[in-house]
Amino acid sequence: MNTLRQIREEVCEANRALAARGLAPLTWGNVSGITRSRDLVAIKPTGVAYADLTPDHVVVVDLSGNVVESALRPSTDTPTHLALYRAFTAIGGITHTHSPWACIFAQARRPIPCLGTTHADHFAGEVPVTRQLTAAEVQDGYEAATGKAIIERFATIDPVRVPAVLVAGHGPFAWGPTAAKSVENATALEAIAHMAFHTLMLDPNAALEPHILRKHHDRKHGPDAYYGQSPRSAPLT
């Protein structure tokens, strides 16, 4: 069970990783994590540079958005994060960035199709794009409406098997079982967006065969996954 101090440290480290990986210039991104035992969310404070961020800066809020710990204001995207935590109960961390290649697809209102095994290793199908928000939604509760649009888009998609989305005209959100894994999925998302853009330039009809997509995803994430080392693996002698 994570203590509040542990989750603040993890979220601080995950946010600093955004800058280290080139996913969030300036302050264009935020990472959060949740402690499910207490339904408390730790998230980056708004406008604080990654290089200056410490665990004490990280803001803790409840699932209604009330600040529990910190003198700072939480990220302006907090209502989106909270909506996703309430709807996607299997996730433990969320990353939002404005990474350029994923944003290109979001701005074009175009999903990222699965064109190769690199994509399939992380996402079990295309990364979807949301509908555009209405003027009324933008005017009244913009960030909460963003969360609502994401949840709508996943009505028939398993958010565990496809742990990312493109918000139309805005940018990507990715998630995972921890804050660190959500950053990993955001990193993978940016890489596959880069590859997809150039692949589609060469062949607009490119696609990965469904049976290869299933194999690559399931060998890492399926019930009989065998990619990587088991924690029970005997040490080499």
Oligomer class: single chain
Low-pLDDT stretches: 233-237
Report mean pLDDT, rounded to a whole number.
93
Helix content: 25-40%
**What's the CATH H-level homologous superfamily?**
Class II aldolase/adducin N-terminal domain
Largest sheet: 7 strands, antiparallel
Per DSSP, the total helix count is: 8
CATH level-two architecture:
3-Layer(aba) Sandwich
Give a count of the beta strands, DSSP E runs of length 2 or more: 7
Question: Span from first to last CA?
Answer: 34 Å
Q: What class would the helix/strand composition place it in? A: alpha+beta
Walk me through the topology.
Elements: H1 4-20, E1 29-35, E2 40-43, E3 59-62, E4 67-69, H2 78-87, E5 93-97, H3 100-107, H4 117-122, H5 135-139, H6 142-153, E6 164-167, E7 171-176, H7 179-202, H8 210-221
Antiparallel strand pairs: 1-2, 1-5, 2-3, 3-4, 5-7, 6-7
Helix pairs in contact: 2-6, 3-7
Description of the structure:
The chain has 237 residues and is α+β, with helices and mostly antiparallel strands. It has one domain (4-221): Class II aldolase/adducin N-terminal domain (L-fuculose-1-phosphate Aldolase). Helices cover 40% and strands 14% of the residues. The chain has helices at residues 4-20, 78-87, 100-107, 117-122, 135-139, 142-153, 179-202, 210-221; strands at residues 29-35, 40-43, 59-62, 67-69, 93-97, 164-167, 171-176. It has a 7-stranded antiparallel β-sheet, with helices on both faces. A hairpin with a 3-residue loop joins strand 6 and strand 7 (171-176). The model is unreliable at 233-237 (pLDDT under 50).
